[in-house]
Design a protein that fits this description.
With 419 residues, the chain is an alpha/beta fold. 46% of the residues lie in helices and 13% in strands.
């Protein structure tokens, strides 16, 4: 995962605003700017519910809101998403938060909360994605979820991702899987290659990105299918906890998704394999443990966009096939990405939004002429790379603009894993 952080920075440094203004009339451009709303403050932490009322109207009756991160480890993005989580919970009835972190590891966070009253802010480091859990900006959402636990509407927390080298995955998965199978007197435990499977499964839990596949990968895949059969045939229980066969069905599928992610193609990450299982984890959570509840999904835009993604099957596209128009997806963009002195040219939507304010919200316009004008503009989307044509209106239905962003460095020692 640390390698991903370097890749994010490399991608971001290539991003730049620019292009011509497309010959638009000043009247239409003015209408475009009128569609956008400047907040009453440039301080994200001071945004009021009144500032977010337009966002609330755009969300409407949606039962799922996908909050995207154009890039991980961005202070302003984490601050804004934490504020949106609070708004959606307090004003729109969203009581479930699904985050881009390992499904198995976040289940362990819930277990520690249940058994040891451990706050999510304490259990998150080493279990939730380090960009969320090992920085003060990312910790804001965990602090809010903790705060809700004593209230009338406690938020529920779950991870949707595959095995992402969390301390629960690496320290507990194989042992607990074997114990669960022993309790069922599972025949797979008698397989002559069970020990080979266990060895490779343990390696998979460490998320071995950019490594060579083991020689016995075919053995791992064969035995994995037998394990899936134990848990995925009419599961007796469907809860997000370790005593649930439904949970273990998704856990072993996540193990296979991680293996596909790191080893489908030599030294190349297969995000389709990962997103297929992450999307199905989200479906299982929404259809089963959290059925009937309104949910927030927090993930990178690469995974969250349902349309126009470079992935054949993103987490967002898996959700869209099931829930369609029940989903509202947001994006966040900025103009000062590479330096405070960066100049963004007039062909970008960021240029227009910067004329409105330093912190701006924009729903996808209802007016056809303004939509056409938006369509002419480049927008910084995945990893803040300029996208032309942009995917506003297809991949996401609303947009937040922040003038200046800053990347953070995770504090590994300040936020240690607690066992």
């Amino acid at each position: 995962m640390k390698l991903i952080l370097s890749a994010i920075f490399a991608l971001t440094l290539t991003a730049c605003g620019g292009g011509s203004d497309g010959g638009s009339s000043s009247e239409t451009t003015g209408d475009l700017r009128k569609t956008a709303q400047a907040f009453s403050t440039s301080d994200i932490d001071a945004i009021t519910d009144a500032d977010l009322a337009s966002f609330g109207r755009a969300v409407g009756d949606s039962s799922i809101v996908v909050l995207t991160e154009p890039s991980h480890v961005v202070a302003q993005v984490m601050d804004l998403n934490a504020r949106l989580i609070r708004y959606l919970h307090e004003n729109k009835g969203f009581d479930v938060l699904l985050i881009e972190s390992g499904m198995f590891d976040v289940a362990n966070m819930n277990e520690l909360k249940q058994n040891r009253s451990m706050a999510f802010t304490v259990s998150a480091p080493g279990r939730a994605f380090y960009g969320f859990s090992r920085d003060a900006h990312g910790q804001k959402m965990f602090a809010y979820v903790d705060q809700t636990q004593a209230g009338a509407k406690p938020m529920e927390l779950a991870g949707i991702d595959v095995m992402m080298e969390g301390v629960a995955s690496t320290g507990l998965f194989v042992t607990r899987l074997e114990a669960r199978l022993q309790a069922r007197n599972a025949a797979v435990l008698l397989d002559p290659q069970w020990s080979t499977f266990k060895t490779i499964a343990q390696r998979v839990t460490t998320n071995p990105e950019y490594t060579d596949a083991p020689a016995d990968l075919a053995v791992f895949k064969r035995v994995l299918e037998l394990v899936k059969t134990e848990f995925c045939t009419a599961p007796a229980t469907n809860q997000y906890r370790f005593d649930s066969d439904g949970f273990w069905c998704r856990a072993v599928n996540s193990l296979g998704g991680t293996a596909g992610y790191v080893w489908n193609t030599p030294k190349v990450l297969d995000y389709n394999a990962r997103d297929h299982e992450a999307g199905n984890n989200a479906l299982w959570l929404l259809d089963g443990p959290f059925a009937g509840k309104k949910a927030i999904v927090l993930t990178h835009a690469l995974h969250g966009f349902a349309a126009g993604s470079t992935l054949q099957e993103s987490t967002g596209s898996v959700l869209a096939k099931r829930y369609g128009t029940q989903i509202h997806t947001t994006n966040i963009t900025a103009s000062k990405v590479n330096s405070p002195d960066e100049i963004v040219l007039s062909g970008s939507l960021e240029f227009e939004l910067d004329q409105v304010g330093a912190l701006v919200y924009m729903p996808y316009p209802t007016d056809a002429a303004v939509r056409a004008e938006v369509g002419k503009r480049s927008i910084r989307e995945v990893n803040f790379a300029t996208q032309t044509p942009n995917r506003f209106g297809r991949a996401y239905q609303s947009l937040f603009y922040v003038r200046q962003i800053n990347f953070i460095t995770p504090n590994w020692t300040g936020y240690p894993a607690v066992y």
